[in-house]
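JOB MANIFEST
job_type = single_chain_structure
chain_count = 1
residues = 618
[input]
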Amino acid sequence: MNANTRKLLLPGGIVAVIIVLIVLAPVLPLQDVRSMDVPNRFAGPSSDHLLGQDEFGRDVLSRLIWGGRASLFIAVGSALMAAVLGTALGLLGGYFRGVVEVVTVRASEVILCLPPLLLALLVVTILGAGTGPLMLALTLLYTPNYARVVYAATLQVRSLDFVTAQIAMGAHPLAILWRTILPNVMPPLLVQMSLVVASAMMIESGLSFLGLGVVPPTPSWGLMIRAARGAMEAAPLLLVWPSLALAGTILTFNLLCDRLQSVLDPRDVTAGGALWLRRSTRVMTPARSVAAQDGPLLEIRGMGISLETNDRSLELVRQADLTVQSGETVALVGESGSGKTLTSLSVMGLLPDQLEVNTGNVLYRSKDGTVTDLATLDESEFRSFRGKEISMVFQDATAALNPVHRIGEQLAEALKGRDGQGDMQPRVIDLLRKVGIPDPERRYRAYPHELSGGQRQRAMIALAVANNPRLLVADEPTTALDPTIQAQILQLFQELKAANPEMGLIFVTHDLAVVAEIADRVVVMYAGEVVEAGSVADVFSRPRHPYTAALIASVPEGAADRLMAIPGTVPPPHAMPPGCRFAPRCAYSRPECEAAPPVAESPAEDRVTRCIRWKEVT
């Protein structure tokens, strides 16, 4: 149980006690809520009546518990009905857009123009007082809130790659909504429900207080407060008990909502999917850190990354091995879909939802020599590593930088995370100057859209190296830049390495020319596997895997009349060949290549290849 989950214990326990009391009210040894004892009206607490008797001599404790039953039944019932209706409207409007959006989300937003209490009064006035009309009024009142929350979440999720892939495969839209989008919008939906329950209890009590809610003799907290108002001088405690019950329950639900927000925050689910969806297939070891005086900065051993679905598990990365020494630059190369980005994201603990590291180890050696298996950390533990130990430069700086905050503010926030408060402007300007941004004093107050593509990438690099990390992961940082700016960014990386000689660098790219210019070692990935690794000079001069040789041959060089293309495409995760994954595209393929997956071999010192015919490649 992590720290955030433990925060749910107190409010969750109180809510559970309240629910148990009101559910078991019919079988608890309570006084009859309708039994009157007029001669003992306004009597104080006693052994028979622990909280005293009301204006008709009825037991206050019994009416308090039964009143909570009525209030919570109305609040929870209307919240659930509004959630179902609002979620359906938000999903349909957010996914189909156009006319469907107008009919569903935009039409429901008309209700938001009316004051909440006035709308509830209108419905109750038309249909009459009672539990049914009150629940209908609250359902109409809160449906637009759910619709807006789900609509916004659906817009965000529907543009992600895994939804696009299902559309491309011809999945039915309703199946996509039910199985893919709905699970991803559930966290904000659950938080919204806890807010609605608390708000509905307040409105129900207000309407009952006005005589337009629960009809006597059924008890409710609003009715009890209304009755106690006229007897404040004779028995002030009659007003205290229902007020405490109402305020305490609402505050507990609000606290539960805040804790749920923390637990279900997307930043807290990077260790393999949302908390409520996570199902780990990995055996977690209690001992996560050991002392080590010497060794590699990062060592990935036999790592596997899988996608867990309802009916099967897809292995996206299999038995990946990668080592980064202190001060070394390792290039991670391969075609799109080879698994290089997933491998780099696993080092940062930033895998997408429903993906998890299910096998192997990701061992990182900290500044004090402690070796930690990053694959076993939860989000709260990972935060102590990001920034000051490990940092990342993302491919799209436009998407990585917050568009509503100035560049200087974002860099200052990163620095404050390590050094606390203080005047960060001089340090931020100096950092901008170090990464080569011209006129840093003026750029300090610029928004990301006011910078050029190269300047945004430099700002992204400045953000990544602000706290002097020991390991920097760069995910194709030069892909979207023109050749001149690309050369400048590569030069900046080399200058950063020279200024921080102990910093390790993982450079993810598909450009072999970049690898030759910046890297010490290269790791080649194909279809989720490391197929070759070694020093750049050795691998480029004498590749030991057909895929590496084909990549090198496809690079335009000199005055060649034609380029060598690799036939076929990378196989999808659900249709991997049973043997060597490159066999269907390989000119060296033989029947034995398709029989079983090849094991990694070492043709020479510091060389690895996953090919049984490596001697024949070059």
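[summary]
The CA atoms of residues 274 and 388 lie 25 Å apart.
The domain at 59-264 is CATH 1.10.3720.10 (MetI-like fold).
exit_status = 0
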